[in-house]
Amino acid sequence: MGNERIILLLLSENATFATPSNNQMDCLTIAVYRKHNRVVNMIISRIENPNYVSRYGTALHIAAQNDDVEIIKILLQHPSVDIYAKFKG
Q: How far is residue 82 from each of residues 7, 15, 25, 47, 51, measured CA to CA in Å?
């Protein structure tokens, strides 16, 4: 939810960031949806699949819908981001 101290603790404990929440969003899509640029930047290197499709689309879809250029730039640095990922929603 944007608490950077907790994110740092989770990173130091090698926590996984891939498990979807009860609203079907993973940590990355939540951070992008809530426009937590610093959190996105902190966890992007730990995300194995940045193309997880939440109920709002992938993180890249959400950032594009929000017109968030800074987050889009962060996401595009991940080597596995699929700019052609499809989302019906």
A: 25, 24, 18, 13, 6
